Amino acid sequence: MQWAIDELGFEDEPDVEAQIAEFWQCVTTTNAELVVWLSSRSASESCGLLELVWRVKQTAISVVDVADRTASFAFVTDGDIVAQQLHERATRISDLERKRHELAWQRLRKENAAFRVLTDSGLASASITFFDDILLAHATDDWRSFASVVRDTSVQLSQPYRQCSEEVLFARLLALVEAGVLEGEANGELWSYASAVRRANGER
Q: The sheet that has 144-145: what strands, in order across it?
């Protein structure tokens, strides 16, 4: 959470931090098998799996991967799970897979980059400006809402992999405005998705 506050300007949310701490306390102390639901086409969900494997050494972990149907498990409904019997996909992570995940996460943690993105070869480190060129490509000489630019960028970044949330893209778009790369007009006193953005003079 502190990284998101420092680098992306997210608000400090003690309740969320407490929930995260409680979650890790629960999963790292249970003796029951853990079942991870994810899409391996989602960068954040893939990172979550690696962090889990990194923290949980003894407990068995199984995975239900829905990458063949969606780029994020967040888009799967309870009805989908029941109707398609997705729980039957659960596959136990082998010792070899666990070791491979641990080595990948060790490398990514050592690189300590701002973002981790998915490639055809797996997760890779990326700089804080990784998404900026795509955001700039969706800005025009005319005013567009933050929502429109973020939405169009998010769509582009969701195929074949879902690389980040719209909240991250909003934060980077605002950073480009604050750096003078783009012009922005806030909607009222605060920046929001209803705020407007366009290319700064000379930017094409």
A: 144-145, 196-199, 182-185
d(C-alpha 42, C-alpha 39), whole Å: 6
pTM: 0.89
- Please name which of 149, 141, 146 lies closest in space to residue 201, comparing C-alpha atoms: 141
CA atoms within 13 A on the CB side of 39: 21
Q: CA-to-CA distance for 12 and 35, rounded, in angstroms?
A: 30
pLDDT tens, 83-120? Answer: 999 999 999 999 999 999 999 999 999 999 999 999 99
How far is residue 39 from each of residues 42, 43, 160, 162, 163, measured CA to CA in Å? 6, 9, 11, 9, 12
Torsion sign over Cα 20, 75, 66, 8: negative
